[in-house]
Write a structure and sequence with these properties.
The structure is a single chain. This protein is α/β, with parallel strands linked by helices and 258 residues long. It is built from nine helices and twelve strands. The radius of gyration is 20 Å and the shape is elongated. The structure holds NADP nicotinamide-adenine-dinucleotide phosphate.
Length: 258
């Protein structure tokens, strides 16, 4: 019998994992549906929220999902919490792909903060030239500090625009190379970068470029995520599924109430 895997995605790794697992199972990739033109995913995609953990339980039951994989972005805390809870309630095994965060290295000038609001405060009172490499949902918090100049990069346009007098908007989708990031920081005479600790190579360029230029980084720390069995890379997660076979993670149907 072909097993059914639901991968919660919205990340490059989720797409790669979906393609890898598609050869041995029936894979559906789930996207939140926020990005206006997401990149082609190569496997069947469903899009939009489930309606909380309860909605996800209903979906898992309806589709008779055998394995749930949470491969969402490390800052997507709500869907990860919903996934852990829904898996428990529906009796569906869950695995997570948890990309490790970046660690500071010699030369980095990081200020660690817990929230985007704290990042706004960390910029200080004096006007500075700030690069915001955050999702468009988060940048609104910087309305509270209109004295700075902002360079704001996002995949989709920031709407509404910030209510600050001095902001430049840039539309781009990663991966971003260190050389290009360095040129960007220099061209815009950036003094401080605000970033999430996304981990991975695709968006590390700005961190390496900031280090090379001696520029400060305000690093918004990761949210707490539920404790579920996890792997750090696509390869390890796919190997886990291979090594044990999907049946290893799947309990008898009776236990799952299907
Ligand atoms: N946060 C980031 O920095 C970031 C960066 C890159 C990519 N992403 C991706 O963007 C998406 C949204 O991120 P977020 O931070 O807004 O998430 P979030 O705050 O954890 O989730 C908010 C709601 O969006 C829906 N949702 C999120 N991911 C979903 C998915 N893969 N499939 C179906 N519904 C999903 C869920 O709605 P219901 O409760 O109605 O089910 C969830 O409760 C995620 O897929 C994430 O992987 C996020």
């Amino acid at each position: 019998m072909t097993h059914r895997i639901l991968i919660l995605g919205g990340t490059t790794e989720a797409r790669q994992l979906a393609e890898k697992l598609a050869a041995r199972a029936s894979v559906t990739l789930s996207l939140a549906g926020r990005t206006e033109s997401p990149v082609a995913q190569g496997v069947p995609v469903r899009s939009g929220g489930f309606g909380g953990a309860d909605g996800l339980v209903a979906y898992l039951r309806e589709k008779r999902t055998d394995l749930l994989i949470d491969a969402t972005h490390p800052y997507a805390a709500r869907i990860s919490a919903n996934a852990a809870q829904a898996a428990r309630v529906a009796g569906v095994p869950i695995l997570a792909l948890r990309r490790p965060g970046w660690e500071p290295v010699e030369g980095d000038r990081w200020t660690l903060v817990d929230t985007v609001d704290d990042a706004v405060q960390a910029l200080g009172a004096a006007p500075r030239r700030v690069f915001l490499a955050l999702g468009r949902q988060e940048v609104g918090a910087f309305d509270a500090a209109p004295q700075h100049h902002y360079l704001i990069r996002s995949v989709d346009p920031v709407e509404p625009k910030l209510a600050v007098p001095d902001a430049t908007y840039l539309l781009a989708r990663g991966p971003f190379r260190e050389d290009d990031e360095r040129a960007l920081l220099e061209t815009h005479r950036i003094e401080i970068v605000v970033s999430k600790n996304s981990g991975g190579a695709a968006t590390y360029g700005k961190i390496a470029a900031a280090r090379a230029l001696g520029i400060e980084v305000v690093m918004v720390q990761r949210p707490d995520l539920p404790d579920v069995p996890s792997a750090e890379t696509v390869e390890v997660l796919a190997a886990l599924v291979d090594q044990f076979g999907i049946d290893h993670f799947v309990g008898p149907a009776a236990e799952r109430g299907v």
